[in-house]
Write a structure and sequence with these properties.
alpha/beta, Rossmann fold, eight-stranded mixed β-sheet, UDP-N-acetylmuramoyl-L-alanyl-D-glutamate synthetase, Mur-like_cat_sf
């Protein structure tokens, strides 16, 4: 019998320990940060030994760790075999699930939107269960029902859902790589690259495990130069958006108006009318990932065009609302940053007509987490880059506004007839 010691119950180690115990393995949970008394108590109730410090040499144990785990903790096991949480999920489920019913999606940006777009399209053919940053939801013929709003996109949560699979197709958004259990794996983006393991590694190194763990088809962004060498030298079956499928949209767009577009495949072109309920420029890659996946799954291109024609966007992801006297755009996500704000404003400035009397930006950081803290000074600098485009910029909350050059108190916001309001931030 294999012995496992699972690190970091803060990031799913408790879930994986429970699954290993249920499978009959000898398992120890290691609370490396010594902060989760609540989870340790639950593990003890399942007769799972939980430790906060090492009391002996565990060289006969397989060490299971999250891919972002600092090397400091791994150095305590110099002679032990080590696998990541992602690799453990593959070990536990690869031979025990229907791989044709699983799609995994990872990337630094765009993975939540891509996972929803893809799930929406697939739901016209069968019931889809989606686990993403939005929550765990069921989609049937384009309609979504949130089953659980509080969840995570760790490999451990993927394992928990796989342990309770029902009939249907499962789409998993996953952080820092995929587990390789699905028929299709999607890498939405490598940028931005950020440090993990206390600076000893980075997100690029973590996400490229998709090329080693995935046994099925892999889809990447063909325009990503950072991936070119990996793709060219890989023996895996790899498809690429912008090469296997691309899209043409008009040079200038109107906010809130439907868009006549063309999906271009190697063998044919498909006309598509996209709705104006969302800013299509923020969805381009997600649309292509969705279209290419459906093509790989042998879904007719004409059906793909039909499904896109009724798609209304992802809630609060660059969605458009026509209010009584003004137009509103909402773009809120957990991945909000100065870069995402810059991307949104650049798209609006470069691709859309702006017949508005005043363009107002409202920043909301009420959901700003400690692990991804946004500095308002950085947001203020981004607004300065678009000073000739944004007329007024506001932020919710109590702040020392004297330190900002452009941001003002949201209490001063006064939307008038014919204005555009852009609401952005954490959500």
């Amino acid at each position: 019998m294999k012995n496992f010691i699972v690190l970091d119950i803060n990031h799913g180690g408790d879930i994986l320990s429970s699954i290993l115990k249920d499978r009959g393995y000898n398992v120890i949970a290691y609370d490396i940060y010594q902060t989760r008394n609540d989870k340790r108590e639950l593990l003890l109730q399942k007769n799972i030994k939980t430790i906060t410090t090492l009391d002996k040499d565990y060289k006969d144990y397989i060490v299971v760790y999250p891919i972002h785990c600092p090397e400091y903790f791994l150095s305590f096991f110099p002679d032990s075999k080590k696998i990541t949480h992602h690799e453990l999920v593959k070990f536990l489920f690869y031979k025990n699930v229907n791989k044709n019913k699983i799609i995994e999606i990872t990337g630094s940006k765009g993975k939540t939107t891509t996972s929803y777009v893809l799930s929406y399209l697939l739901s016209f053919n069968e019931t889809v269960y989606l686990n993403s940053s939005r929550g765990f939801e069921r989609l049937i013929k384009g309609r979504s029902e949130i089953i659980k709003s509080e969840n995570s996109i760790t490999p451990a949560n993927t394992a928990k859902i796989l342990s309770q699979m029902e009939d249907g197709l499962y789409v998993f958004e996953e952080s820092l790589g995929v587990s390789g259990i699905g028929d299709v794996s999607i890498l939405t983006s490598m940028d931005p690259i950020y440090q993990i393991k206390n600076g000893a590694s980075n997100s690029f190194e973590a996400k490229k495990q998709i090329f080693s763990l995935s046994e099925g088809k892999i889809i990447v962004d063909g325009s990503d130069k950072k991936l070119r060498n990996i793709v060219d030298n890989s023996e895996k079956e790899i498809f690429q958006i912008w090469k296997d499928v691309s899209i043409e949209i008009p040079d200038k767009l109107e906010i809130g108006k439907n868009i006549e577009s063309t999906l271009m495949w190697k063998e044919k072109e498909s006309k598509v009318q996209f709705r104006g309920d969302y800013l299509i420029t923020g969805y381009i890659n997600s649309i292509l990932f969705g279209a290419l996946t459906l093509k790989i799954l042998n879904i007719n291109q004409d059906k793909i065009s039909k499904y896109f024609s009724v798609f209304k966007g992802v809630e609060n992801r660059q969605t458009v609302f026509q209010e009584k006297d003004y137009t509103k755009i909402i773009d809120k996500s957990g991945g909000f940053s100065e870069d995402s704000l810059r991307y949104l404003l650049s798209n609006l400035m470069n691709y859309y007509d702006m017949p508005y009397k005043s363009i107002n930006l409202l920043i909301d950081l009420s959901n700003n987490s400690h692990c991804q803290k946004i500095k308002l000074e950085d947001i203020d600098k981004v607004i300065g880059e678009f000073n000739n485009f944004i007329d007024n910029a506001f932020v919710k909350g109590t702040h020392n506004f004297e330190r900002f050059k452009y941001l003002r108190d949201s209490e001063e916001l006064n939307i008038k007839k014919g204005d555009l309001l852009i609401e952005s931030g954490k959500g």
